[in-house]
Amino acid sequence: MTGTVIRVESAAAYDVVIGSGLAGRLQGLLGESVERVAFLYAAELAEYAEPVLEELLKHYDVLGLGLPSGEDQKTVAVANDCWEALGERGFTRSDAVVTFGGGATTDLGGWVAAGWLRGVRVVHVPTTVLAMVDAAVGGKTGVNTGAGKNLVGAFHEPAGVLCDLALLATLPEADLIAGLGEVVKCGFIADPEILRLVEESDKITASSPVLAELIERAIRVKAEVVAADLKETGGADSHPGRETLNYGHTLAHALEKHSGFSIRHGDAVAVGCVYAAELARLAGVLSDEVAARHAPTFAKVGLPTTVKELGVEAGFDDLIGAMRVDKKARGSVLRFLVLHDLAVPRILTGPTEEQLREAYAVVGG
Prior knowledge:
By secondary structure, this protein is an alpha/beta fold.
């Protein structure tokens, strides 16, 4: 049960444990006062969830709740079903939630925990690269609505996160690659060593020795950003704070919504980062060299860099409406997280429509 421990030093500090065979660490994270645990898991992962469930059953009264697949679970209706089940079982404020699954499961399960009695403990056991480096860490929870992705939710930090790297062997290759979209993003916004490791590595698989280091580095990036700015109020000295983590996400979320959430988040983020880099170049704040580094680096791990590669048919006019309701927008003014250099993130406010369209021509494919 050994593993690397990364401490997230936020207001409610917690540990992210990275290693293999970590189920025995659950009791320590959940605490002694817990009697009942709601175990929310992606139903298709029931076989892999068994070791975690068996460990929980040794110590707690467990309510198992299987969830729909992927983004289909991130709805108000599914969350309400979970709350009704907690009520029927008599869950109190001292009880807890444990999630097992990808980013959609940690988002939904985190919101269920945040909403029940205005907040109960939650421990995440992410099963994908994407969930390990992004969704499970940082306390963002929520669901999708017709208006867009993740527009309804709450900040609710976990009591702990267990990243069992052995679970990555169960991932389809396409899902593992998609998760690397958020990893490469972290290289551009904060840790260029990630970019070097990617550029100098052969094909990255679940058994690649470099994968563990990439995941640890990406988690450290997120932990440091979140600790400094949990609720996106901004950083010091012009640093955008937590908004930094949204690099590439303005276009990515618009593409996801346009596709009916049928494309992988990490794939969309890769395209969104290439778009943001080109937009920054056109705005005169990012060098040609750094902008040009984006597409080859994402492509190196097998990620798409154009909308055509995503399999989405979307022109600029199909997406601009969704971008205008992005969480970074203020009123009618679009704001983009961009780079002024490697690991120098800034906010670009009110780019011209000509710049927006010209940048889209690069990724529209």
